[in-house]
Design goal:
The structure holds 3 protein chains of 3 kinds.
Chain A (H helix, E strand, L loop, with lengths): L13 E2 L9 H22 L3 H21 L17 H25 L4 H27 L11 H22 L4 H29 L4 H12 L3 H26 L4 H24 L2 E2 L7
Antiparallel strand pairs in A: 1-2
Helix pairs in contact in A: 1-2, 1-4, 1-5, 1-9, 2-3, 3-4, 4-5, 5-6, 5-9, 6-8, 7-8, 8-9
Chain B lengths: L2 E6 L8 H9 L9 E10 L2 E10 L7 H5 L5 E3 L5 E3 L9 H5 L6 E3 L14 H9 L6 E3 L5 H9 L13 H5 L5 E5 L6 H8 L15 E4 L1
Parallel strand pairs in B: 1-9
Antiparallel strand pairs in B: 1-8, 2-3, 4-5, 6-7
Chain C lengths: L18 E7 L8 E7 L2 E7 L13 H10 L9 E3 L12 E3 L2 H18 L4 E4 L9 H13 L4 E2 L9 H11 L4 E3 L6 E5 L11 H14 L2 E5 L12 E3 L6 H16 L4 H7 L5 E2 L15 E4 L4 E4 L14 E3 L2 E5 H8 L5 H8 L3 H14 L5 E4 L2 E4 L3 E5 L1 H4 L4 H14 L9 E3 L18 E2 L5 E2 L40 H7 L8 E5 L10 H10 L3 E5 L4 H6 L2 E4 L15 H4 L7 E4 L14 H11 L3 H16 L8 H6 L20 H13 L5 H7 L1 E4 L3 H4 L14 H17 L18 H4 L7 E6 L13 H9 L6 E4 H6 L7 E5 L5 E9 L6 E5 L40 E8 L15
Parallel strand pairs in C: 6-7, 6-23, 9-10, 9-19, 10-11, 23-24, 24-25, 28-32, 29-31
Antiparallel strand pairs in C: 1-2, 2-3, 4-5, 4-25, 8-20, 12-16, 13-14, 15-16, 17-18, 21-22, 26-27, 28-33, 29-32, 30-31, 30-33
Helix pairs in contact in C: 2-17, 3-17, 3-18, 4-12, 6-9, 6-10, 6-12, 9-10
Classes of the chains: A mainly alpha, B alpha+beta, C alpha/beta.
């Protein structure tokens, strides 16, 4: 819970709370689901896993539900496509609708009209484009807020999409666990690379952000050793980076991977992805209005 | 025509009437504020100054909230006033997050009572007739646009004639607040801002607020 | 689409069948600013300031005024007379109210009143500190009732906790007024000590807010000495931290620097307007003319002694030593000037922690700014211009050195002649020339037999002619010390000791209190509990339940809220809260904006009904005739309630019969007659209700009357020398010991009792101060005010200096306990500040409610008054103002112990 005293509102650094407290939890959850559903679809499409694509579609539906819970007037949601010219949420709404639509068609075709390869490919590509768009747009929506310095970073959309893809890959790993061994090894290698990339991006993001403004530095300090440190170090670092990397490195050298370890890695990765969204949203801090301090 | 405000900080004593005048004028529900008084300190003992700032939506000329609203519920009038169409707002709160000044608020609990558990007072009931608020939508200062519109229709001048001027401005006991047309180079408000060197809050956000503060 | 409605925000198209603005006065605090209340469809929805007159902020209003709406419609309002069925009384007792009829209530009170009046009317105790804007009913209601009934026992509660007995005594002596304020329009340099003029609550905050803001904008320097940088300090051009209770020594040091180092002072003012030239003998008293008994002065021109009012005096000597009738004597100014040498900046620094260099600099700057000798022309009148003011109010004199601290401040003004002249220190209006048409409501100060300034209207403290000290026969014990303003007795821990010694002449059998909370707004609720528990019958007129009514009242009568009541004028008199300086004369009325709902009744009409039941109504009617006549007619020398009490000096032929002895009129009827009497037939109630008030312009000689009236003020308190022997003698009979050292005619510095109680363990001073959001104890119950209080860093918290808090291992948000050497404890949440003296702990307003009938206020903020003691040891011996600061030790605590047993939510 946000602990600021009511009289410190915009007098001291003020954490954003509309996208993290109460109802706001669901938008963080929705961002996460958007990331992994997009990432999973892309990974599943690359590795030809129909089940993976289907799970991605289900996750997208779940994401829609999560968004609806976040809205206080959910039945008006149909209005949300009105302003794609300037609003990232409007754009995101469109991307999600198109992704769900194209994926639905592609799944139907793949399952029951498997002969229509051209059509399937078209829709897969279309769905893939919007899968990526749906995965990355939340990063843009968040970084558009120039008043929150830790969010207003070029790295953020990349961080979100890489996290989403890593999470999607992890879920795909769980889905394909009992499948083709060669595919599994290829997948594991991709995951290794993505994990390392993810770790580097997180590190660069946090370090570099401290240079952009003192408000950003305040946000980073909260994450590293302030009130959000447990969430960051345990959720993001331990579960999201350390455990998966340790497991993936050890399995690289061991050759065969025990199912249990892989499942642990997958779950850990998912927790880490979720924790990352929460950490970034919770760390959003506004500069005070008062000139002092 | 672009409405703006200038606030003389030296005159303000932090009496909170601007906050309550607005609450009374619009029958705002419990814990909902369309403007606030922020209190702080500057300096170290014994050379200390008390800071008192009355803040509200800055009715920015280039408002981020209007841009990020996905439904178009948040919109800007010709005269610069940014307002929310209650019937279109979905409650996504992107505008609240995007506002660099944090001057927007959401009315959640439609059943909130000022005297919890004791029912609505006559005053609260009157409010539901005269100025009802839809729960679940975002609200904020609207420069009392109803007063301005009614005043202009009756041939009055906002900022000069009390009935046509925002409630907070006319209620200030130290006359710390001024209201007028920023687009009129000869208006009183422009003269005050120029003469007394009014400044905007955080101009680096690039939103071009319509409220100027004078030390 | 919404159809716009002018002057109001409306959404949708609601049906509006009533859209009325009513001119009346605010009841948020004693200020009584003029307002326009907006009633829509029978409900009051908005309070705006009245833009067209000077009695207030001219169109603005403060938050307390706006929030009145919520007090009016509070569902916890008292709507019917109630009787207590729980026989137990105590701080946390549930009264278990039973509703009764008005007849039953008044009859049971009348029964007791009749018995008391037959035995000894002094057995009735009445009073109460004017609560939610009910102040104007003070003289007209309980004042008259008690005077006619014949009781001496009027207990105001608080004894200076609210403003200060030192201030009222001093302002009465020096300005014929209630308090002092800078002439904001023209002042260039103001010094404030423990005063929030223009930024706090109080008896004239409305126009002071407006005028002070103009002054700040114009560039007036405002140096504020205060332990905390919040309200007064927050708008200062320079905030100077100071230890509580030490303001007096800083003021006297400045006088010393000005008189003895710089040698600059307003010679003419001292000669003509003070008792500076009066010769003082070795006994400390005036040397008097053998025949006329008038004090003597030395005429330097003719080199002989003459009476002070001798028209042939050529030049009043201020300095030197002379021999008159074989007695060596000096002008009192010489004595004062020499005496000031005791107060050096270094000594002052040691006592107050204000750096010596700062005191010197301020004194220099101030006297430079005083422009001694300058003049200004205002509306054709040539007047002295002294654009400096030195102001003290509650905080500066709320200590056992109250009288001397306050008079020290007045001395500072006197030596540069900045008293009731343009730019200088003004008392609230003491000179009313009278209505231009009728000449009535004329109030003029006049000189007493020794030439000293005497107020032409009722003052709580009336210094001239000096009353005799008596062995007290009243529960307030005030008859002992004539210089006392308000007394803490009988609600003290030592009262019984003295009353026993005097043989317990009688006991209080009935107490009638209105608009007050005498266990939370006065010092020490435990001492209060012990007293109020013993009163056999307590009746209160209240609008909301509070700790006092719940714990102790036997009968509660439902009073009208200011928005549903009539009230004649907004004030006890111009000297109390009328606009200062050249602001126009303004007599606003209060009228109901909505009719009182349920069985609420205007307390005055209830009192008249009661008077009727004990056969006293005719006497009251006659009393009102005298009261009104004397404020505007020739029945008395001045409209002095005190002499009215005796009813002996009035020439009955000169009393105008406004109300016949047998008439049973309503309050508004009385207002109509009074208004016509004062201001002419045109200004009847109907006319004034439409216009809100009776106004006319003020003349310069009224605003700046000092040089138009032949009066002097005492820079040397000779009357104290005259009184002290008598007082000591009578005190002995009552077994009362006072700090006799302070009964000296020379204005001096005495360390406050609080300073004497500092030890290593109890190492911090704690004090409270007024908050702009609150007045009395009822404002925390208004949800709007409660909401914004929670948004303010200081209002509901206990504040300490950041460095000191760190030293003690405390941080923001900790629940802390303050404990005094007497074991009193109070708790609250800590907020640290840079802007606070490190040796102090501060609590704003008087929060910490525990009444079950005030659910919004319950548990919010901290009750400071729990920490105070109430006895002679903690009172100023001369003015009887209470010591309002304590020493404390501070430590963390796990829950709010002062709520143990209160029966509400666990805190």
């Amino acid at each position: 819970m946000i602990q600021t005293k009511p009289y410190d509102f915009m007098v001291k650094y003020t954490q954003q709370k509309e996208w993290i407290e109460g109802r706001g939890n669901f938008i963080a959850f929705a961002f996460f689901l958007g990331g992994i559903s997009g990432g999973l679809y892309l990974a599943a499409s690359y590795f030809d896993s129909l089940l993976g694509q289907f799970v991605a579609w289900l996750l997208a539906l779940l994401m829609g539900v999560s968004y609806m819970i976040h809205l206080s007037k959910p039945f008006r949601f149909w209005r949300m496509f009105m302003k794609p010219g300037t609003s990232w949420i409007a754009r995101g709404f469109i991307f999600i609708m198109l992704f769900i639509g194209f994926t639905f068609i592609q799944l139907i075709l793949s399952q029951w009209v498997s002969g229509a390869t051209a059509a399937i490919t078209t829709f897969t590509v279309l769905a893939g484009i919007f899968a990526f768009a749906q995965s990355i747009y939340t990063g843009f929506a968040v970084s558009y807020v120039s008043a929150i310095k830790i969010w207003n970073s070029a790295i953020l959309p990349i961080l979100f999409v890489v996290c989403g893809i890593t999470g999607g890959l992890a879920i795909l790993l769980a889905i394909m666990m009992s499948g083709d061994h060669a595919q599994l090894v290829a997948l594991e290698n991709v995951i290794r690379v993505m994990l390392i990339a993810f770790a580097i991006i997180v590190g660069v993001y946090l370090w570099n952000t401290t240079y952009s403004s003192i408000t950003a530095k305040d946000s980073v300090v909260r994450l590293i050793r302030g009130s959000l440190a447990p969430l960051f170090w345990i959720g993001v670092f331990f579960f999201g980076i350390l455990i998966p990397i340790v497991i993936s490195v050890s399995t690289y050298f061991a050759g065969e991977a025990a199912t249990g370890l892989l499942i642990t890695a997958v779950i850990s990765e998912i927790i880490g992805g979720l924790a990352l969204r929460f950490a970034v949203l919770k760390a959003g801090v506004y500069s005070p209005l008062l000139p002092a301090e | 025509m672009r409405w703006g405000m200038a606030i003389e900080l030296k005159r303000c004593i932090g009496c909170y009437e601007c906050v309550l005048a607005c609450k009374a004028e619009h029958f705002l529900p419990p814990d909902i504020f369309w403007n606030r008084v922020l209190i702080g300190e500057s300096g170290k003992y014994p050379t200390v100054t008390k800071l008192i700032y009355n803040v509200r939506c800055n009715q920015c000329a280039d408002p981020p909230c209007v841009k990020v609203c996905p439904t178009g519920a948040t919109q800007q009038r010709e005269d610069g006033i940014v307002w929310v169409d209650e019937d279109k707002c979905v409650g996504c709160r992107y505008c609240m997050v995007a506002c660099p000044y944090q001057m927007r608020t959401i009315y959640e609990d439609g059943n909130a009572q000022y005297f919890p558990g004791q029912g609505l007072t006559e005053h609260e009931k009157a409010g539901r007739e005269l100025y009802p608020h839809q729960p679940g939508v975002v609200q904020k200062c609207i420069f009392c646009k109803e007063r301005i519109d009614a005043g202009l229709a009756a041939g009055l001048t906002p900022g000069v004639d009390r009935e046509a001027t925002p409630a907070c401005v006319i209620s200030c006991p130290t006359k710390a607040m001024h209201f007028g047309d920023l687009d009129d180079p000869y208006s009183e408000i422009n003269r005050i801002i120029k003469e007394k060197k009014g400044h905007q809050f955080h101009p680096e956000y690039g939103t071009d607020p319509s409220i100027y503060y004078i030390d | 689409m919404t159809t716009p409605v002018l002057g109001m925000s409306v959404k949708g198209n609601p049906e509006i069948w009533d859209d009325t603005w009513v001119k009346t006065t605010c009841g948020g605090c004693y200020g009584q600013c003029t307002i326009r209340a907006h009633r829509v469809n029978g409900v009051i929805v908005k309070i705006n300031g009245e833009p067209d007159d000077d009695f207030g902020p001219r169109g603005g209003i403060c938050a307390k005024g706006e929030a009145m709406i919520q007090a009016l419609y509070d569902p916890n309002r008292i709507n019917y007379p109630m009787r207590r069925t729980n026989p137990k009384k105590g701080l946390f007792e549930d009264p278990k109210w039973e509703r009764i009829s008005w007849d039953e209530a008044l009859d049971s009170i009348a029964e007791r009143l009749k018995k008391i009046r037959a035995e000894n009317p002094n057995k009735l105790l009445h009073g109460g500190t004017p609560g939610p804007g009910s102040g104007p009913d003070l003289p007209l209601g309980f004042g008259v009732f008690g005077a006619v009934f014949g009781t001496k026992n009027w207990y105001i509660g608080g004894a200076g906790l609210h403003c200060g007995s030192g201030s009222h005594m001093g302002a009465g002596l020096y300005h014929a007024s209630w308090s002092i304020v800078p002439d904001f329009k023209l002042c260039n340099y103001a010094i404030q000590m423990g005063s929030n003029k223009g930024t706090g609550s109080g008896h004239s905050m409305g126009f002071n807010m407006r005028l002070a803001a103009d002054a700040r904008s114009r560039g007036m320097k405002n140096v504020v000495f205060d332990p905390i940088c919040n309200f007064g300090g927050g708008k200062a051009t320079e905030w100077i931290p100071i230890l509580p209770g030490t303001d007096g020594i800083v003021a006297l040091t400045m006088v010393n620097i000005i008189l003895n180092e710089l040698g600059v002072y307003d010679v003419e003012f001292l000669k003509m307007k003070t008792n500076g030239p009066y010769l003082v003998g070795p006994d400390g008293k005036y040397v008097r003319d053998k025949e006329t008994d008038k004090p003597l002065v030395w005429d330097a021109k003719d080199s002989k002694a003459k009476t002070f009012n001798d028209p042939t005096v050529g030049d009043f000597a201020l300095l030197g030593e002379y021999e008159v009738n074989g007695v060596k004597c000096r002008p009192s100014f010489q004595l004062v000037k020499d005496h000031m040498k005791l107060y050096t900046p270094e000594a002052a620094e040691k006592e107050s922690t204000v750096p010596a260099a700062t005191i010197r600099r301020i004194a220099n700057e101030w006297v430079d700014a005083a422009m001694i000798g300058a003049t200004i022309e205002i509306e054709g009148e040539k007047l002295p211009l002294r654009p400096v003011a030195a102001i003290m109010f509650r905080g500066g004199q709320g200590h056992t050195n109250s009288a001397h601290s306050y008079t020290a401040m007045c001395l500072l003004n006197a030596i540069v002649g900045a008293m009731d002249v343009p730019g200088g220190t003004l008392g609230w209006p003491a000179y009313v020339g009278g209505h231009p048409d009728t000449g009535r409501f004329r109030v003029t100060p006049y000189p007493c037999k020794d030439g000293m300034l005497t107020a032409g209207q009722f003052m709580e403290h009336r210094p001239w002619p000096i009353e005799e000290s008596k062995v007290p026969n009243d529960f307030t014990l005030k008859e002992l010390v004539p210089t006392a303003s308000f007394s803490p007795h009988p609600v003290t821990s030592d009262f019984d000791k003295y009353w026993d010694k005097m043989g317990r002449p009688y006991e209080i059998e009935l107490a009638m209190i209105f608009g007050a909370n005498l266990v939370r707004s006065t010092q020490n609720r435990e001492i209060a509990e012990a007293f109020w528990k013993k009163i056999p019958m307590l009746v209160t007129f209240s609008i909301l339940p509070n700790e006092f009514t719940e714990g102790f009242a036997d009968i509660v009568l439902p009073d009208c809220h200011p928005l549903e009541a009539y009230c004649l004028f907004g004030t006890h008199g111009p000297f109390f809260n009328h606009p200062i300086g050249m602001e126009g004369w303004n007599f606003p009325i209060r009228q109901p904006v909505v009719q009182p709902a349920y069985e609420r009744r205007n307390k005055l009409e209830a009192l008249w009904d009661l008077a009727g039941r004990i056969g006293m109504r005719g006497e009251m009617n006659n009393y009102y005739n005298v009261y009104f006549t004397s404020f505007g007619g020739e029945a008395l020398i001045g409209g002095d309630l005190h002499s009215i009490r005796g009813l002996k000096d009035i020439d009955p032929k000169k009393v105008v019969q406004l109300i016949g002895p047998d008439e049973k009129i309503t309050y508004d009827e009385m207002m109509d007659r009074a208004l016509k009497f004062y201001f002419g037939d045109k200004n009847d109630l109907k006319y004034v209700s439409e216009h809100g008030s009776v106004k006319w312009p003020k003349k310069a000689k009224e605003a700046y009357w000092r040089w138009y009236v032949d009066v002097r003020v005492p820079i040397y308190m000779e009357h104290i020398a005259e009184l002290s022997d008598e007082i000591k003698e009578n005190a002995e009979k009552a077994g009362i010991e006072l700090d006799w050292e302070q009964f000296t005619p020379l204005i001096s510095y005495f360390p406050p009792q609080v300073g004497k109680e500092i030890t290593d363990e109890f190492d911090l001073y704690s004090f409270s101060y007024r908050d702009i959001l609150h007045n009395g104890t009822y404002t925390m119950e208004m949800p709007w005010l409660d909401e914004v209080s929670r948004l303010n860093p200081y209002t509901y918290n206990i504040t300490m200096n950041t460095g000191m808090a760190e030293k003690k291992g405390l941080k923001d948000g900790d629940l802390i306990c303050l404990e005094t050497p007497y074991g009193r404890k109070t708790t609250g949440t800590l907020k640290t500040m840079q802007g606070q003296h490190p040796q102090t702990v501060a609590i704003s307003a008087c929060s910490g409610a525990w009444a079950k009938g005030a659910p919004i206020a319950y548990g919010k903020g901290t009750n400071f008054n729990i920490l105070l003691e109430s006895d002679f040891k903690h009172a100023c011996p001369v003015s009887w103002s209470q010591e309002t600061a304590t020493t404390v030790k501070v430590y963390k605590i796990d829950h709010r112990i002062e709520y143990d047993g209160a029966g509400g939510d666990k805190l």
